[in-house]
Write a structure and sequence with these properties.
Elements: H1 19-54, H2 57-91, H3 101-113, H4 117-137, H5 140-148, H6 163-197, H7 212-239, H8 253-283, H9 287-316, H10 320-323, H11 325-338, E1 346-349, H12 357-369, H13 379-386, E2 392-393, E3 399-405, E4 408-416, E5 418-419, H14 431-437, E6 441-442, E7 444-448, E8 465-467, H15 480-485, E9 491-492, E10 501-504, E11 515-518, E12 526-529, E13 537-538, H16 542-552, H17 556-559, E14 568-571, H18 575-582, E15 587-588, E16 593-597, E17 600-611, E18 620-621, H19 622-626, E19 643-644, E20 646-656, E21 662-666, H20 672-680, E22 685-686, H21 693-696, H22 703-716, H23 721-726, E23 731-732, E24 749-756, E25 762-775, E26 783-788, E27 799-804, H24 812-821, H25 823-833, E28 840-841, E29 845-848, E30 853-861, E31 872-880, E32 883-887, H26 890-898, E33 905-908, E34 929-932, H27 933-952, H28 956-977
Parallel strand pairs: 1-27, 21-22
Antiparallel strand pairs: 2-5, 3-4, 4-7, 6-9, 7-8, 10-14, 11-12, 13-14, 15-17, 16-17, 17-20, 18-19, 20-21, 23-25, 24-25, 25-26, 26-27, 28-30, 29-30, 30-31, 31-32, 33-34
Length: 995
């Protein structure tokens, strides 16, 4: 570029340079650049190897070339504009410098700059170009969405534009305009500096302060900047559609009648100002452009700030409900659409219906399916009983899934037995052990969620294991799950607690295995093994070992004998980490859960598409909406902030726990954002039809999505704008009543329930995710909400809301207080209160039962002086109607609630009707003699046990007979008790009132 500069005859000869100093500087620069270059290359090279190994090399290529392209384009534009601007300013400098103190003072700077002016221009342009290119690289998501965006086929209410314009186009247009304004500002500063240095701008000289060339160049740059500002005003108009306000997100009355017209006026003034600056190239006066800029600044203050405030204060505020009614209605419609709540309608649910025979079947069903094993409280029990070795562990909060065991669908609480290197002795924590010996976990630990004390000869308080590595008291193996799935690969190399990396593989088939593990899923015997899965990057060559030594900062990749020609390295091992790397545009659900599918342990995850630019929809913090008693971290990765106003469960994802294979399946086939990403990464998402039926059985409605929906529905179940504004029917999710979780919202729970529909039909034993609402600021119950979580059902994702008509129905907080204040409960828990570990209250479950509600809560405790250092399920608490029951099993607790004094009796006249062991129709009259509710329930429990045995023997006829017999006993027990399970006690919490 040196030919662009003419040598000034007044310039002195360049000084002689010190060759040694120059060599040292060059050497230091080369070493620094080599270090960063090698580190960067190692990172990119190893990333490429990882993506190719996982089968997603196309993702790496797309990301790499998109980023490189964005960097080069925007860096070159910035560098070129700055360089040309500086060159033009230099070449149009005045030949003679006026004799003035100012110019005399600048002479020494000119003398210093002259010898290096070419390098200085090139260096300045390159540095600014790097900054611009780096900024553009971070916009790869915005660019790809713009390039691959589609229509939503739905228009916003204010501008009549397709929502796709706001989600896909507007963010990229904003970036382009902001980038153009930044380039022009930098170019303007660079030109002004050069002009000032070489006399084109004379701040202290008499006469013209600017030469004609300087004035022309600066006028053009200023005109272009103001023109870009006009474009910015035009785009700002559309930002109002998703702008957060004090009342709603989206356009309000003041926005539509003050802010929007102001933006249009400011855009027009900015265009006029730009024209005035362009005319200044020839007119050579700053009067008109200065007036234009002053008018623009004044208009921005008056029209952009003061006028909207005046309209809000004097037009809107006095009658805000009327002025904002249309805009609130728009917000309600947009919010329900953005969070997929349009089809949700509450159903009236009476809590004062007299319980009769119809309720008994529901109570029987809940007796068999209510989960008493709390996924959070039994973690210690799982580890104590089934850990196997100190270097294994399970997640802090276990997962809930369902399996068909012995012909019956059962809910299980389960966790993967993962490697936990923290359990190793410190003296054993060397590189070889940590990265080549202790490499993987082993197996699944599972317990029946609906613990049935006394089954298979186990004590009533013991957990009934479905999968483990020990033996039951009756001598049988804990392998129900293994037998049901016909065995599975139990080694777990990829999990939520996996170490950073492991080096696996043999140099030769005859070499000894060094990886330590268990012999099998239900075995407790140690054995050595060698990983032979498809996952893992081969690192047999010295070059690759060098690259990974740089990546992990570990020289043992080059020095250790455990790294050889047959070695592979596995890393990025947590399920979420792998999915986020393969599909960085997804937001991942907080809960990854293991499922055994086709002989493999798969981690199942839910992936969301989100945006904060859905016009008119309420925007809220993702963390706020999903935070509850069990939430640990959020999966939000794809937005600058965690605020969103649109969310879809776009994909279902599996990660193989043995070889790390990631499979992403399309789930929401109508989501436009997913379609855009499929266009950007065409080989990443498989079609929905590709989901195996065996996997479909374990897919479920995701928790984070349900939490977001229930958070928004708490307010947006109200569809009338006037009622919404008044807030007189606002709900909220109650706080968790558990003392250990005070201040956190109650988490949703998974269980089988009978789900009624608006058509009057009831689907029985629906695998559901459930929660409750209370009136805002109140403790009584407002509604019960559930969503069909069975992915094999046609009604999957259907949200049912049972809105209680009785405003005195007690909520979870009141029920928890009643439990803690009940004399019988306190007496039962007293032996455990004096120990170091007080009783632990599990999840308080709300279960709809025949137009009524039943509350169930397990209680865990460690008995004082017991050798067991982990909590054991001791009691079950039940609330039915006005009564509270406690027992060691759910059946006992229900019996205690229905007959709290144990005195309800009735003399039966016909001795011939006494039940026998033979199957029979449920008795319409009880057997002769004196019977209590407890005895009837005991007989029902025996019938249930006989039914289960018949089911194991594949005798379905006997199974049905025994279930019918049991239902008859429960019917009779309820009639004897005379208890209405849906009634609220007198004098309880007052009904919700309008606020």
């Amino acid at each position: 570029m040196s030919e662009l500069f003419d040598q000034d005859p007044r310039d002195p000869a360049p000084p002689t340079r010190n060759g040694r100093s120059r060599a040292l500087v060059i050497t230091a620069v080369v070493l620094v650049l080599a270090f960063f270059g090698l580190t960067t290359f190692a990172s990119i090279y190893t990333d490429r190897l990882w993506f190719v190994d996982t089968g997603y090399g196309g993702v790496f290529s797309t990301l790499l070339w998109t980023r490189i392209g964005l960097f080069l384009v925007f860096a070159v534009v910035m560098a070129a504009v700055v360089a040309v601007t500086m060159v033009v300013a230099f070449r149009t400098r005045p030949l003679f410098h006026p004799n003035s103190p100012e110019q005399t003072g600048l002479d020494r700077y000119r003398e210093a700059v002259t010898p290096i002016r070419t390098a200085l221009v090139i260096g300045t342009a390159l540095v600014l170009g790097v900054f611009a290119g780096t900024s553009a690289v971070g916009q790869w998501r915005t660019y790809l969405l713009w390039r691959n965006g589609t229509d939503f086929d739905r228009e916003d209410a204010q501008f009549g534009r397709d929502i796709g314009f706001f989600v896909f186009d507007l963010p990229w247009l904003h970036f382009l305009v902001d980038y153009a304004m930044a380039v022009l500002v930098v170019a303007l500063i660079a030109a002004a500096v050069v002009h000032y240095l070489y006399g084109g701008i004379r701040l202290q000289s008499p006469g013209d302060r600017l030469t004609g060339a300087a004035q022309a160049q600066l006028s053009v740059l200023l005109g272009l900047f103001v023109l870009a500002k006009a474009a910015d005003y035009w785009l700002d108009r559309f930002d109002l559609a998703y702008q957060s306000g004090n009342l709603i997100t989206g356009v309000t009355y003041a926005d539509a009648n003050a802010v929007l017209p102001a933006k249009n006026i400011l855009m027009g003034i900015a265009v006029i100002c730009a024209v005035l600056f362009f005319l200044n190239v020839w007119r050579r006066t700053w009067m008109l452009p200065s007036v234009g800029v002053a008018l623009l600044a004044l208009s921005a203050i008056l029209l952009g700030m003061i006028w909207p405030a005046v309209v809000q204060q004097f037009q809107v505020k006095p009658s805000e409900a009327d002025k904002e009614a249309d805009y609130i209605a728009r917000n309600i419609a947009a919010t329900r659409a953005a969070y997929d709540l349009e089809e949700v309608e509450p159903m009236d649910y009476s809590s004062d219906t007299t319980v009769g025979a119809d309720a008994s079947a529901a109570l029987e069903g809940q007796t068999a399916t209510v989960p008493l094993v709390d996924p959070e409280l039994v973690q210690q029990t799982f580890e104590q009983n089934q850990q196997g070795r100190v270097y294994y562990s399970v997640a802090d909060v276990l997962d809930v899934d369902r399996y068909e065991l012995d012909g019956e669908e059962r809910a299980l609480v389960l966790g993967a037995r993962e490697l936990d290197q923290a359990g190793l002795n410190d003296s054993d924590k060397n590189w070889s052990n940590l990265h080549t010996v202790y490499t993987h976990g082993n197996g699944i630990i599972a317990a029946y969620a609906n613990q049935r004390g006394g089954d298979n000869g186990t004590p009533a308080t013991d957990i009934q294991w479905a999968e483990g590595n020990q033996t039951n008291p009756d001598g049988s193996a804990q392998d129900d799950l293994t037998r049901a799935v016909d065995g599975y690969e139990s080694r777990i190399y990829f999990g939520e607690q996996s170490p950073e990396y492991s080096v696996v593989g043999k140099a030769d088939e005859d070499d000894s295995s060094v990886e330590l593990g268990l012999a099998g899923a239900t075995e407790d015997e140690e054995q050595t093994t060698t990983y032979d899965g498809a996952g893992g990057v081969p690192i047999g060559s010295t070059f690759r070992q060098l690259m990974y030594a740089i990546k992990f900062g570990e020289p043992n990749f080059l020095l250790s004998g455990r790294v050889h020609s047959g070695s592979e390295v596995i890393y990025d091992r947590t399920p979420r980490e792998r999915v986020e790397k393969v599909a960085p545009w997804l937001t991942i659900d907080e809960d990854a859960y293991p499922a055994i599918v086709d002989g493999k342990v798969l981690w199942v995850l839910d992936g969301y598409t989100t945006t904060d630019r859905y016009p008119g929809a309420e925007r809220e913090s993702y963390e706020t909406m999903t935070n509850d008693a069990l939430q640990q971290t959020t999966g939000l990765q794809t937005l600058p902030t965690d605020e969103i106003n649109y969310m879809r469960n776009a994909v279902k994802v599996t990660v193989d726990a043995y070889d790390g294979t990631v499979d992403i399946y399309e789930w929401d086939e109508e989501d436009p954002i997913l379609q855009a990403w499929k266009g950007a990464f065409p080989d990443v998402v498989q079609e929905r039809e590709a989901i195996p039926d065996s996997l479909l059985e374990h897919l479920r409605y995701p928790e984070d999505l349900f939490k977001v929906q229930r958070y928004q529905y708490a307010r947006y179940h109200v569809t009338d704008a006037g009622d919404w504004y008044q807030g007189n029917d606002r709900w909220e999710v109650p706080e968790d009543p558990n003392p250990a979780s005070r201040g956190d919202l109650q988490a949703p729970h998974r269980l089988f329930i009978d789900q009624p529909s608006a058509e009057g039909e009831t689907a029985e034993d629906v695998w559901s995710l459930t929660s409750v609402f209370v009136p805002y600021g109140k403790n009584n119950l407002a509604s019960f909400v559930s969503v069909n979580s069975d992915a094999t059902s046609e009604d999957y994702g259907k949200i049912s809301v049972l809105e209680l008509q009785d405003q005195n129905t007690r909520g979870p907080g009141l029920i928890a207080n009643e439990f803690s204040n009940d004399d019988e409960v306190r007496d039962a828990l007293l032996p455990f209160q004096s120990g170091q570990s007080p009783p632990l209250f599990g999840n308080l479950l709300t279960v709809p039962v025949t137009d009524g509600l039943m509350y169930v809560e397990p209680v865990y405790a460690v008995r004082q002086g017991s050798t067991a250092g982990y909590p054991i399920l001791r009691f079950v608490l039940v609330s039915i109607g006005e009564n509270i029951g406690i027992g060691t099993t759910l059946t006992d607790a229900i019996g205690d609630a229905l007959d709290p004094d144990g005195t309800a009796t009735e003399v039966i006249e016909d001795p011939e009707d006494e039940p026998t062991d033979e199957p029979a129709d449920p008795p319409s009259d009880p057997p002769a003699g004196e019977e209590t509710v407890r005895s009837l329930l005991a007989q029902a429990d025996e019938a249930f046990a006989a039914a289960e045995q018949a089911l194991e023997d594949d005798d379905l006829g006997e199974y049905q007979d025994q279930v019918t017999l049991a239902q008859g006993f429960i019917d009779r027990a309820i009639e004897l008790s005379g208890v209405d399970p849906s009634a609220a006690p007198a004098g309880e919490d007052e009904p919700a009132t309008e606020e």
